[in-house]
Prior knowledge:
This protein is an alpha+beta fold. It has helices at about 1-10, 20-60, 65-100, 105-110, 115-140, 140-155, 265-270, 280-290, 295-325, 335-360, 365-390, and strands spanning about 165-175, 185-195, 200-210, 215-225, 230-240, 250-260. Strands 1-2-3-4-5-6 form a six-stranded antiparallel sheet, with helices on one face.
Amino acid sequence: MKLTLSKSFDSLSWLTPRISVMDRYLMMQLLPPFLFGVGAFSSLGVAIGTMFDLMRRVAESGLPMMIAVKILALNLPFFIGLSFPMSMLLSTLLTYSQLSSNSELIALRSTGVSIYRLVLPAVLMSLIVTGMNFVLNELVVPAANYEAAVTLKKAIREEAPDLPERNIIYQQFNKVPQENGEKEDVLSYWLYAKEYDGKKLKALTIVDLSQPDFTQILVAESASWNPENNTARFFNGTSYLVAPDGSYRNIGKFSEQELFFPRAAINLARKKREPNEMNIVEAQEYLKLLLPTGEERKIRKFIIRIQQKYALPFACVAFALVGATMGTKPQRTSKATGFGVCVLLVFGYYLLMSVGDALGLSGVMSPYLAGWLPTLCGFIMGMVLLVNSSR
């Protein structure tokens, strides 16, 4: 076998000078089922996740067929990214099972090759796939998802993307020292705007609680952001200063006035994308805008989504470890059985993801840990199986 394989890979040896014949052989065996898995799982995901809904909209809402095809194509990168971990699991499970049933693994182990060394090519390949998945999810998927959402909204006229954002509420908390010496989050700024048309906030009501001697209430017809001095220009409004005992200290009307205004309020109004329509950098920027608002549940949700963006690509490594270790057991696994095992394990992964979401959002678990929960469980399962197989 070594002689034949050496001849087969001689032409490629300059590309992989440090990879042994055994490693190259195992990787080449892993590649076909991996590509099959990407095609199968992506098709299945697109059919269940998008195609049925689009066909329903074509039939019931008159969505043009060409628009439906465009949206389907834009959603494809997302499902390809999701299919990578499942494909690694299928590939390693089928490949190592086939090698085990052909006694090739027994032959290799009889020459002193350990189980750890046998699964190493699968882990190396999974790291490459992890990198590909990370690049796809950061550079392609968010933009494609956003374009798909905008295209669908335009087509069915649910909401044009340039229509104004309505009912904007922004609140800001500051850390204030208490009598016991500890600092607590106290509401310092509250804003409501009926509408934001991309340039102006309209029908504003602002309550400024940041000053200890008075509370300022401002009502204005509109306001626009002035980037030159980081203030906002308010138009046609009234300002009320209220003393701590509830009496009015001052009431003033104005037609135009520049005042301090938290830019985060406008930035939040501009950010209308869902977490799956942002890459990690964009999601981190949005999280910075959310932190002063004190909206604990929304903040936790974004932290979980950001951590999942890091964790999901590494599920390829966890699944490769699990699949390779299970495949080294001396039993033959058919493609149908392997596919079924994959579906069960992937179902367990997404079940743990839901559990992590619930625990993270409720505050029972750190949102950082909640985002990594299913991937960490996959790593632990893979390591336990690997150690047991080596005995």
